[in-house]
Amino acid sequence: MSRFLVSAAHKSSGKTTITVGLCAALAAQGLAVQPFKKGPDYIDPMWLGQASGRACFNLDPFLMTPEQITACFTQHAAQADISIVEGNKGLYDGLALDGSNSNAALAHLLDLPVVLVLDARGMTRGIAPLILGYQAFDPRIRIAGVILNQLGGARHESKLRAVIEHYTDVPVLGAIAHDPRLAVVERHLGLMPNHELDDAAQRVHAMGELIAAQVDLSRVLALAANVAPLPSPSPAQTTAVLAPAPQPRVRIGLARDKAFGFYYPDDLLALEAAGAEIVPFNTLQDACLPDVDGLFIGGGFPEMFMPELQANTALRHGIRAAIEGGLPVYAECGGLMYLARTLRWKENVYEMVGALPANVVMHERPVGRGYMELQTTTDAPWPAPAGAAPQTLRGHEFHYSSLENLAPDLKFAYQVLRGHGVDGQRDGIVYRNVLASYAHLRNGAGTDWAPQFVAFVRAHCIASQPPATAAARSVLINGKAIATDVEGYLRNLDDWSEDFARAQAKAEGLELTDEHWQVIHFLRSYFEEHRVQAQVRAMIWHFARVWGPERGNNHHLHDLFPIGGPQKQGNRLAGLLKTKGEH
Question: What is the mean pLDDT of the chain?
Fold first, then answer.
């Protein structure tokens, strides 16, 4: 089980770009490279996953027990040729005075040789006592080699190599010259996520080539292989990803796009193991939700995509209608921001989903940053394991936003014991079947949120199933009962009339205008002519000619029919059948 840790003397030494380059360079040699990241960070693992072609897993001494860390590492490392762990901050930095949650402690726990990245700008002879000090500080830690970064040229490199060779026994594994191609774009929350960049793959490929040219990869592989075997995880410790769910599966929609992308891979595996089918959707492009039983909207940068999120009116309205209808939703940080009324950054204010009675404001400095401890309240909506209520949970937060104009009667799932959350005392807004918080939880860290959420979604599905006797209803039109199903679709298409459309629209809270009638009559004419129901693109093509492109578009059509759009609500009022895939 070849493995090593990439760490540094201090943060911002370039270890992330070098680790990404190492992953890309070794993967290019045909090796199965399994990346790991120490700490709760989302963005570095996304780059490491891009470079290796494998999901990157987080190892976090604050959120996880040593047994959980070891089980996570051994389970995934066993499926690869080599495992690379990227540290956070400096080798000996950490929250605890005794260093029990430092990178060094992780290296000791997993018997990881350490490759130390040293930012060598302005250094010559002084690099020797730095290396010697790091070796002497904790003799249990094996510093297997150093990579010199940000070198000023060949002369600078030769001086450093001579000093290190003369005063220490630590080999120089590589020397990286300053190169803008090794830089990753940064902004207010750190590195820019790879999924926001159209050229991320090319950037990673370039990093791999640069690292391969300046690092002795054969020596890196040799030191990674010079380790003792780790014990295999017991069956009880491994994630039972392939175990069949004992109960019916549920479909959980996952917001995954440029605005939302912060998800731990073991959380998604835990959702699947609990019986969920993950159904991705795009908040920037999709006009309607997929057919799902619940939603998971994770963190991200919605503030960077405010115009696009507001412009997708149809999806925002659809999500709000689904929430008002009782759809179970779990949202973290960026997801919370998206579900609020508005999002304001400087002078710009944009409409969001509007389901949560709060407004979001961005600030120049972090409002909440760091690890959290939470205790569940009696308003927490999900079923907790027997004997575990109230639960004490650990998570983390990193947000530059706060909430304003909160409804005074809001319920909260968590009392904040450590951290900030919504207001320094509470977190986890509970509205209908929504739980939205600034806290990022992690199932692999012992919170068990994934199976609890799946159980909550499944229970809602069972409770919302209509009884057999309610499989049909009727609408009274001019003294005559017209049969429909429970959703308002006609049982007999020949029973349609404009009076039916008016009665059904009234039941759905929709006031019909001339534009509504034009769409309804177009849908009926199209069906009579083609014997199939019109697709949205056919509606857009037709009404762009009739109304002009400023109104004859997808967004306006969904504004007219907010409960499912023209293919659902429009067809229902037009007395036509359910569209394919509708349930």
Answer: 89
pLDDT in tens, 498-529: 999 998 888 888 899 999 999 999 999 988 88
137's CB contacts (< 8 A; 6+ apart) are: 92
Do the beta carbons of residue 336 and residue 438 sit within 8 Å? yes
Task: Give the pLDDT confidence score for residue 135 in this predicted structure.
Answer: 94
Across the range 73-100, mean pLDDT stands at 92
Catalytic residue among 56, 72, 333, 461: 333
Q: Which tops the pLDDT comparison, 247 or 37?
A: 37
Sole residue written with tokens 């027997």: 386
CB 501, CB 521: distance < 8 Å? no
Residue with structure tokens 């809001």? 410
Instruction: Tell me which of 36-45, 88-97, 273-282, 425-434 is least confident.
Output: 88-97
Q: How far is CA 2 from CA 39, 207, 237, 452, 483, in A?
A: 21, 22, 21, 36, 68
**CB neighbour list of residue 274: distance below 8 Å, 6 or more residues apart:** 245, 450, 451, 454, 455
Q: Tell me the H-state helices in 29-111.
A: 43-52, 66-77, 103-110
Residue-level pLDDT at 243 = 45
- State yes or no: pLDDT of 580 exceeds 50: no
Q: Which residue from 133, 89, 98, 135 is spatially nearest to 113, judged by alpha carbons? A: 135
What was the pLDDT predicted at 46? Answer: 93
Judge whether 288 counts as a catalytic residue: no
- 245's tokens: 């769910």
Please tell me the predicted confidence (pLDDT) of residue 489: 85
Structure tokens at 566: 């023209």
What is the CA angle 339-295-55, rounded to 5? 110
CA distance 203 to 215: 18
pTM of the model: 0.76
Helical ranges in 289-379 per DSSP H: 306-311, 313-324, 334-339
Q: In the predicted model, what is the mean pLDDT of residues 339-360?
A: 96
CA distance 380 to 285: 32
Query: Cα–Cα distance between 67 and 48 in angstroms, integer?
Result: 24
DSSP code, position 574: T
578 backbone dihedrals φ, ψ, rounded to 5°: -60, 145
Average pLDDT over residues 56-66: 94
φ/ψ of residue 388, rounded to 5: -110, 15
CB atoms within 10 A of CB 268: 21
Cis amide bond preceding 390, omega within 30: yes
Phi, psi of 116 (to 5 degrees): -95, 120
Residues with Cβ within 8 Å of 184's Cβ and at least 6 positions away in sequence, in order, are 16, 17, 20, 47, 191, 192, 203
